[in-house]
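Researcher: Can you fold this with copper (II) ion in place?
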Amino acid sequence: MNPQRRHLLFGSASAAAVAAIGLPPLTAMAGTDGDVDVHIELHALADEVAIRPGAKTRVWRYQGKLLRGEASALDNSVGQLRIPVIRVRRGQRLRIDLINGLPESTIIHWHGLHVPEAMDGHPRFAIAPGERYHYQFTVDNRAGSYWFHPHPHGRTGKQVYAGLAGLFLISDDEEAALELPRGAQDLPLVLQDRSFDDNNQFVYLGAPSAGSPAQNRGMMGGGMGSMMARMMGVFGDEILVNGKPQASLDVARRAYRLRLLNASNTRRYKLAWSDGSPLTVIGTDGGLLAEPLQRDYILLAPAERIDLWVDFGQWKVGTELALQSLAFDGGMASGMMSGGGALPDGAAFVLHRFQVQGGTRIHASLPKHLSVLPAPKTSIAVNSDQPKVFELTMGRMTWGINGESFDMLGASALETVKLGSHELWEFRNEGRSAMMGMVMAHSIHVHGLQFRVVQRSVSGQHAGEYDSVKDGLVDQGWKDTVLVMPGERVRLLLGFSDYTGLFLYHCHMLEHEDAGMMRNYRVNA
Ligand code: C2O
Ligand code: CU
Ligand code: CU
């Protein structure tokens, strides 16, 4: 049965049939406000925002309403896209009600969070227009920069492109004791690329991205370019930071924390300071590193986060400093896409400018030790001498994993793990069974947990492409998303704790994911 057909069948299944195929009961989620520390209503809705001069841009976005908790728990208005930022502490009990005000089905996934199956936003939980989904869980992650976004089957790329994304920032006692920059010096920077039409509307695969479902034309809708983009991934020709083109900010001569999230559909960024100063990294996807590290540049793949510390006091008053994306070898996608957009994969551009203001310098020192982070021990894996192999594949014009594409409720024996165990998984991007030799970078994400990257190896075949990014791969710390370059094998150590059930792993280049480069894994008791 093909996945499409299977999905349709599932969509029309009766409640009894749904129960029989193992959806978790919703009863455990009932609760009143008195049981939680923070209660937020999150509306997914259509809106218009001013991004460029002239006509407003139609978007889909999240609008939060804080029903319980400290005012600091929700900020609805980061940047032009009015990106919501949820700020919580580890251990807090959280309730979030998603209310679907879109003209199509949706569901929210809490990217990077360790939550029970029914809270994870699997596409099988997608709700119809007008419906609600009730999330309730205890925040159980380390302090760090997590995020949330839609996850309906086959529509994630379109919905994220239309503007649906938010940040989920967690603090804890360990982090609070460090006195890192906070308040106005703690800046979330959401990196995205978009294409606009002459009327300032987002263009996604040849159609307006925040339009009605009826406006969504078929595979050939936007012509050959759009068919190619549906396969290779969508690249916008304008860069937005928090929804703002040509982003710029006046900064004081003191230390800042920059929390960068790559929320782009496909684009990677090769981040660097314009004056060649090294970047100082304090955290990755799953929170703080053991100690700060410095890099000349950082490669940030879709869905990855990087936490930077920067002391703008080190530059003279009046300096304009830019955070740039440097040129790199975009390989396959840059070649295929360069006809369509002004900014092919691997093109150089400025992301964000910072103007260093006058006033007294406020000295700050960066702590030498940030967190306790034991070295990953591969010997704890049940398959320590035989990693499971996941080949990233391309066949019959569609991406897959081990030659399989998405199957709503399926997980193979290879994809079944035991609760409480650790495993080694190796993702291989070697173009095995690649149609027309198509091999491109993929940004691999695993739901429900944070893993450690324990090994990378590369074959000579794609050396140029690899060499142009390799010094920017930050594998330290806890990760939930990892870039796997053409020719590479990347080995991960994963632990499956607390929750049984069906969770996703997939490529976070959203058109690849929507095309089927996504699978389930099942955690059995
Ligand atoms: Cu942020 Cu399934 O992904
Ligand atoms: Cu996720
Ligand atoms: Cu991919």
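Model: Folded with copper (II) ion in place. The mean pLDDT is 90.
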